[in-house]
Amino acid sequence: MNPPRAPLAEAGFSLVELIVALAIAALAATAVVLALPGRAATPAQEAQRLAARLAAARDLAVIGGHPVAVTIDPSGYAFAVRRDGQWTVPADPRLHRRVWPVGLAVTGAATARRAVFDAMGLPNAPFAVRLRADGATVQVLVAGDGAVTLGGAAPP
Q1: d(Cα 98, Cα 89) in Å, to the nearest integer?
Q2: pLDDT of residue 10
Q3: What sign for the dihedral angle of Cα 99, 101, 103, 105?
Q4: Which of 8, 28, 62, 119 is the one with CA 20 to 30 A from 82?
Q5: Secondary structure (3-state) at 129
């Protein structure tokens, strides 16, 4: 006689378990990328660093369930988390204030702006940040759906 089999519903992982595992893996990968030591910054490298940190801030807003703001100005950028009615500096030191390297300039409409990712990971408005140095310009785009990309046209 054959032993009883477990129902098919008990085999494998649920979709929620897979999504949680992927989110944890993405956060771990982001932490590794942000922890890499820097060299002389080029606009492309700084744009990649900014894009990774913007994506990490968006993910922090979704996973933590609290809005996360980024303030970008000509001297650098900083993040803040909204908890208990107050904006505070994130616990992760990689999301603390970063000063642009010498010779790098922020151009365009984002020379002084504040954007907020809500708990769904959506920004309050799409925006672009252009970084320029040594004749090279690179653009970081944040779309209305929260997607962070490098280069291309400005978001609508």
Answers
A1: 12
A2: 63
A3: negative
A4: 28
A5: strand
DSSP 8-state class, residue 92 = S
Backbone angles phi, psi at 127, to 5 degrees: -155, 165
CA distance 89 to 78: 8
For residue range 59-95, what is the model confidence (pLDDT) as tens digits? Answer: 999 999 999 999 999 889 999 999 888 999 998 888 8
Integer Cα distance of 43 and 139 in angstroms: 9
List 140's β-bridge partners, or say none. 129, 150
Low-confidence ranges of the chain (pLDDT < 70): 1-11, 36-41, 108-112, 152-156
Query: Length of the chain, please?
Result: 156
C-alpha distance from residue 47 to each of 16, 36, 114, 117 (Å): 32, 15, 17, 19
